[in-house]
Amino acid sequence: MLSLTGPAVSSRRLPRLTLTIALATLVLVASVASLTSGAAGLGVGDLAGALLGEGLSPRDRIVLFDIRLPRLALGLAVGASLAVSGVILQGLFRNPLADPGIVGVSSGAGLGAVLAIVLGGLLPSTLTVTIGPALVPVAAGLGGWVTTLILYRVATSGRRTDVAMMLLAGIALSALAGAATGVLTYLADDRQLRDLTFWSMGSLAGATWAKFGAALPLMALALSLAPRLARGMNALALGEAQAAHMGVDVEWLKRLAVLSAAAATGAAVAVSGGIGFVGIVVPHLLRQAQGPDHRRLIPHAALLGAALLVLADLVSRTIVAPAELPIGILTALFGAPVFLWMLLRSNQFRRRQNA
């Protein structure tokens, strides 16, 4: 397994309070920028007035409370969920290359969304009218959960969950979901292809309070359970046998970790589409800034993931205005070079150690 620690972990750790304040400030700044930037012309003064109870014009109220606020809330929740899922899975597999897509949950959720987009017209009209715009998110969420159940069933034998088997099964399920998605993409018409392309690259453009409310329970549940895993994750870094000797219920830990990551990832993918690299890059950055202690890593990952996704969404809707660039493109453009830089830096550090 690759080391979960970075080359700067032992030499330069930021104080916990300093890092927490810095990340909270970043979230606040990103949120204010998201609410006050755009074509509508709402400024910081308008936002402050709204918070103080001063009246806004009907148009400004719609822009602020029905468009920008739900988009901000969804961005914060999705960013935090993806980042914390990355921390959990990297700790579970003891591998810094693990991310929410490695166990197949993202692929399963994507397949559910593709099924809804391509085959949704075959459903009874009463069902499509009842579900309406929630059809794709609901299908994506169900796809993620079905994938998780299959994964858990394959990797569990005699009440014992094999992490290595889980990893291999996740890769196989991702490949299978990708093949099924390819078949459905081949069968899609031009309109469906446009929807599939935009959804697969990730976006918060369709954010509404209803969509946020539908995804929030799962994401909130996963984020609230994640801190309970911190002590066990720290012990698990020493190996399963050592963690068991330290009093950790390893099987309970593995099951709760997988279910938490699956719930957070499935809900996030369901409402935002495919957004990559958040679950890989955020844990790496934080480990180099503060060390591998999950008691600090999990809450800080939630803050940094939320801030980065909100900032990415802000850039995506302003850089090519009045059009909108999918967030997945921006996270890949930012995340891939940063990830390569961290790998090169880690490799250079190991070479110096072995010299």
Description:
This protein is mainly alpha-helical and 355 residues long. It is 74% helix and 1% strand. It contains 15 helices and 2 strands. The protein has helices at 16-36, 44-51, 58-93, 105-119, 125-131, 135-155, 163-187, 190-200, 209-225, 230-236, 240-245, 250-272, 278-290, 294-318, 327-354; strands at 156-157, 160-161. Strand 1 and strand 2 form a beta hairpin. It starts with 15 loop residues before the first helix and ends with a helix. 45% of the residues are buried. The model is unreliable at 6-11 (pLDDT under 50).
Helical content, roughly? over 70%
- State the order of secondary-structure elements, H for helix, E for strand: HHHHHHEEHHHHHHHHH
CATH architecture: Orthogonal Bundle
Strand content is: under 5%
What does the largest sheet look like?
A: 2 strands, antiparallel
Going by CATH, the homologous superfamily would be ABC transporter involved in vitamin B12 uptake, BtuC
The rounded Rg comes to 21 Å
Q: What's the structural blueprint in terms of helices and strands?
A:
Blueprint (H helix, E strand, L loop, with lengths): L15 H21 L7 H8 L6 H36 L11 H15 L5 H7 L3 H21 E2 L2 E2 L1 H25 L2 H11 L8 H17 L4 H7 L3 H6 L4 H23 L5 H13 L3 H25 L8 H28 L1
Antiparallel strand pairs: 1-2
Helix pairs in contact: 1-3, 1-14, 3-9, 3-12, 3-13, 3-14, 4-6, 4-7, 4-8, 4-12, 6-7, 6-12, 9-12, 10-14, 13-14, 13-15
Output the keywords.
15 helices; 74% helix; 355 residues; two-stranded antiparallel ribbon; ABC transporter involved in vitamin B12 uptake, BtuC; single chain; mainly alpha
